[in-house]
Write a structure and sequence with these properties.
Blueprint: H1 52-80, H2 89-115, H3 121-130, H4 133-146, E1 154-166, E2 173-179, E3 187-191, H5 194-199, E4 205-211, E5 219-225, E6 239-240
Parallel strand pairs: 1-6
Antiparallel strand pairs: 1-2, 1-4, 2-3, 4-5
């Protein structure tokens, strides 16, 4: 790369405060076009023909559009994650919260550095790479449940240990804590609806239906009260990982094929 001595060259679009006299500060100012990323040898980009001022305006407009797309994905992910909720939904929401915070911070830094006509090429690529993450997660969780077979249902007998409700702007977050059947875990946090949240209390014996997921992500199918006579017997190939036998008809078992979600 051919370096330009910007300490002796005046660019009309470059603010005076950012013309370092020390050559060591060369990489702190803009050496590439904000719009196309091409290397600049003057105020006007030889590739796209935009001046530094025009490139700043174009880049900031594009940044707003990209941030809008990312926000749409941020609203889509929590919504679709409730259709076929994974057992580790809380951990996924925490992970995406970190992704959202990083992307939002990068957007602010990019805007400020663009205003100051500083180098943004690396940060711009990092921000662009974060934009599709909410859409990838949303599609993955939806297909994981949609393509899963009902024959893979597993029923687990457990006990309600606690409940949690956090008020939200739209519907809030409701969780029922049960003792886990997975090795290395003490509790499972089930993403239930309002009916199940009000129906189950601490100490209730319940049966939790779980499917392994088409993509290998276990997801919560439903929770049912144990020994409830209104439920039909499960199919012969249903798997029980508790004190109940496998492959035998159970008169007081959860329904064999209820719709996905948290149903009574």
């Amino acid at each position: 790369m051919n370096k330009v001595d910007i300490s002796t060259t005046y660019w009309p679009g470059l603010r005076k405060a950012h013309k370092p006299r020390n050559p060591a500060l060369y990489y702190l100012v803009m050496t590439r076009c904000l719009d196309c990323g091409s290397e600049r040898t003057s105020d006007q980009c030889p590739a796209c023909g935009l001046t530094s001022a025009a490139a700043e305006v174009v880049f900031r407009k594009r940044l707003l559009v990209q941030m809008g797309i990312f926000l749409v994905g941020s609203l889509l992910f929590p919504t679709l994650s409730q259709v076929y909720p994974p057992l580790d939904i809380d951990a996924m929401l925490v992970f995406y919260g970190l992704v959202f915070f990083i992307a939002f911070t990068l957007a602010i830094v990019l805007d400020r550095r663009a205003r100051a006509r500083k180098e943004i090429e690396l940060l711009k690529h990092l921000f662009t790479g974060l934009i599709p993450i909410p859409f990838i997660l949303s599609v993955a969780l939806f297909l994981n449940g949609k393509l899963d077979s009902p024959k893979n249902l597993n029923y687990h007998s457990t006990t309600v240990e606690g409940r949690y409700f956090m008020h939200g702007i739209v519907r809030g977050t409701k969780r029922v804590f049960v003792y886990s059947w997975r090795e290395g875990r003490r509790y499972e946090r089930l993403a239930v609806d309002s009916d199940d949240y009000d129906r189950f209390q601490v100490g209730d014996k319940v049966n939790v239906a779980v499917q392994p997921g088409a993509l290998g992500i276990p997801w919560f199918y439903g929770v049912y009260r144990a020994h409830d006579p209104k439920f039909a017997a499960p199919p012969p190939d249903a798997k029980w990982e508790a004190d109940r036998p496998t492959g035998k008809s159970q008169a007081n078992s959860p329904p064999s094929n209820p719709p996905p979600g948290n149903l009574q």
